[in-house]
């Protein structure tokens, strides 16, 4: 099915597609705005989850250290057994005996036993309370004493008292900063977050005192480093002398607590450090907005390219439609033009063969008519072959020095009989000192030949042709002007004049023979030499074609 669309229809299609693309762009903008908020919220939730995991793992390491103090270390001290190796978090372990007026300080040695040492400057041995100090980083946990007594009622009294002894574990801050924190960050946040974010650890509410990482403006904060330090050990189990089931003779404990000295401060269960997370380059929200802008620009660019492609496609379809119509007109014109000389030659030769022509004058007249029609047929075939040759790049292979004056003289000689018969006046102004040009002589001859043929065909009433050649120093080119006193060319036709197969309205209405490829050949020949062809015309006065060839 063959569909034909007018130019207005194609414009309407382009406008409709542009509106649809605009609607799609608006919807994408609204959708991307919501997506930005969702992505930002999801990223913050991811950071919160990862930071909570980091805090939990860090606190577990601290809790394991405290458990070591309240179990392994206390058992080793009460049983006089050597202490096993210290946890990695503990740099030095001290035992403080505050039972006397002057507290005594002991420290573990390489064999795992405690030996007396001088009291460090940072230590306050008189304070045997469960605490965590930050300068230096140390954990203090008291030791406990427990006794079992029998009451008058036969009950067992489990008496627990806090002794005047405590462990003080000096933590290894270098290990925490160089190994523990980086490992936990890697495990909790993952490689992608480590490359996208900066991390810092500071004391809470004291951002200037950095413990780990660079100074940053945090997008997210997470408190951590908290542990429950027991002031009392866990409740004891069933006494060893209790009978086993099924007798079910259960003994009851009476538990009392006794604290020597003044009560200590509450357990340090509040987080003392803070993890800070900052997006690299830009703050988190600004980074997401920047990424959204980039995505929107890519979408807009893609839609612009799509819209431009649609417009180019529609315009190409319109040009192809016009080209197809022009080819159809060309085929029709060539068929008509070929039919006329072929029919004339056939009729004239048939008359001569049948002996209908008698006398020398008649024979000469018939011979002249046959020659004219043959030449017309030859020109049409030659012009068609020239068009095919130029557009298949067959005419741009030869480059030789050319004298443009010789080309013009040769073209005028080829049209001499035709100009004389039509009584044309030819005015020439061709300087002899024109520079030579590098080009294809055959192509230039075709261009000038078609300009002359065009002037003879359309300016028959004016019977005047002017050829003027000059060298333009500003354009660095030779300009060949071919003027006539014909009817001129309308403005609507001038913009399509050099398109293949195009014929003006005046030529179509007056049935001037032609195929519409002559001026297209001139344009193609000029482009093959890096030049151009232009036209200036005034309706009713004539036209001037200017061929520009770089020299």
Low-confidence stretches: 231-244, 247-268
CA radius of gyration: 53 Å
In percent terms, what proportion of residues is strand?
A: 15-25%
So how many helices?
Answer: 10
How many distinct domains? Answer: 2
Q: Please give the number of β-strands.
A: 17
Helix-strand string: HEEEEEEHEEEEHHEHHEEHEEHHHEE
Shape by Cα distribution: rod-shaped
Major beta sheet summary: 7 strands, mixed
Mean pLDDT: 80
Structural class: alpha+beta
N- and C-termini, Cα separation: 51 Å
Fraction of residues in H or I helices: 40-55%
Explain what this protein looks like in three dimensions.
The chain has 551 residues and is α+β, with helices and mostly antiparallel strands. It has 2 domains: 7-232 and 252-281, no CATH class; 398-551, Histidine kinase-like ATPase, C-terminal domain (Heat Shock Protein 90, 2-Layer Sandwich), CATH 3.30.565.10. The protein has helices at 7-78, 173-196, 284-353, 360-391, 404-414, 416-421, 441-458, 491-494, 505-509, 518-528, and strands at residues 90-97, 104-108, 114-116, 131-134, 137-150, 156-171, 197-203, 220-224, 253-259, 273-279, 400-402, 425-429, 437-439, 464-472, 477-484, 532-538, 542-550. The strands form 4 sheets. Strands 1, 2, 3, 4, 5, 6 and 9 form a 7-stranded mixed sheet that branches. A 5-stranded mixed sheet has the order 12-14-15-17-16, with helices on one face. A 3-stranded antiparallel sheet has the order 7-10-8. Helix 1 runs antiparallel to helix 2 (173-196), helix 4 (360-391) crosses helix 10 and helix 7 runs antiparallel to helix 10. It starts with 6 loop residues before the first helix and ends with a strand.
């Amino acid at each position: 099915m063959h569909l034909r669309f007018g130019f207005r229809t194609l414009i309407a299609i382009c406008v409709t597609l542009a509106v649809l693309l605009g609607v799609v762009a608006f919807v994408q903008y609204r959708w991307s705005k919501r997506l930005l908020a969702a992505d930002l919220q999801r990223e913050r939730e991811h950071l919160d989850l990862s930071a909570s995991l980091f805090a939990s793992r860090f606190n577990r390491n601290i809790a394991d250290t405290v458990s070591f103090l309240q179990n392994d270390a206390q058992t080793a001290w009460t049983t006089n057994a050597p202490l096993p190796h210290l946890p990695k978090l503990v740099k030095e372990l001290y035992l403080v005996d505050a039972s006397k007026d002057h507290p005594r300080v002991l420290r573990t040695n390489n064999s795992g036993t405690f030996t007396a040492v001088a009291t460090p400057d940072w230590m306050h041995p008189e304070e045997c309370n469960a605490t965590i100090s930050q300068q230096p980083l140390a954990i203090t946990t008291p030791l406990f004493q427990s006794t079992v007594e029998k009451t008058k009622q036969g009950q067992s009294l489990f008496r627990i008292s806090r002794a005047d002894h405590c462990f003080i574990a000096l933590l290894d801050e270098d290990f925490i900063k160089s190994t523990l924190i980086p490992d936990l960050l890697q495990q909790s946040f993952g490689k992608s977050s480590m490359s996208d974010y900066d991390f810092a650890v500071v004391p809470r509410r004291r951002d200037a005192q950095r413990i780990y990482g660079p100074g940053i403006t945090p997008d997210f904060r997470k408190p951590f480093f908290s542990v429950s330090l027991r002031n009392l050990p866990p409740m004891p189990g069933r006494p060893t002398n209790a009978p086993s089931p099924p007798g079910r003779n259960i003994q009851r404990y009476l538990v009392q607590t006794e604290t020597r000295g003044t009560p200590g401060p509450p357990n340090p269960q509040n987080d003392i450090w803070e993890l800070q997370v900052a997006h690299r380059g830009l703050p988190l929200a600004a980074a997401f907005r920047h990424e959204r802008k980039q995505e929107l620009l890519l979408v807009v660019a893609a839609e612009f390219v799509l819209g431009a492609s649609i417009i180019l496609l529609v315009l190409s379809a319109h040009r192809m439609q016009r080209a197809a119509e022009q080819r159809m007109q060309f085929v029709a014109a060539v068929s008509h033009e070929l039919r006329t000389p072929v029919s004339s030659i056939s009729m004239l030769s048939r008359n001569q063969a049948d002996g209908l022509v008698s006398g020398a004058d008649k024979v000469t007249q018939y011979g002249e008519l046959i020659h004219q029609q043959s030449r017309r047929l030859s020109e049409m075939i030659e012009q068609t072959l020239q068009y095919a040759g130029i557009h298949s790049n067959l005419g741009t292979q030869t480059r030789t020095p050319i004298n443009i004056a010789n080309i013009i003289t040769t073209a005028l000689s080829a049209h001499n009989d035709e100009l004389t018969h039509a009584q044309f006046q030819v005015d020439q102004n061709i300087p002899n000192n024109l520079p030579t040009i590098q080009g294809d002589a055959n192509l230039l001859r075709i261009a000038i030949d078609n300009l002359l043929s065009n002037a003879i065909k359309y300016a028959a009433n004016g019977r005047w042709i002017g050829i003027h050649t000059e060298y333009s120093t500003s354009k660095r080119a030779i300009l060949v002007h071919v003027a006539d006193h014909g009817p001129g060319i309308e403005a609507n036709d001038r913009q399509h004049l050099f398109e293949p197969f195009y014929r003006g309205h005046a030529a179509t209405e007056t049935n001037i023979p032609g195929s519409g490829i002559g001026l297209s050949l001139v344009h193609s020949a000029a482009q093959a030499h890096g030049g151009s062809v232009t036209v200036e015309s005034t309706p009713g006065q004539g036209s001037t074609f200017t061929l520009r060839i770089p020299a």
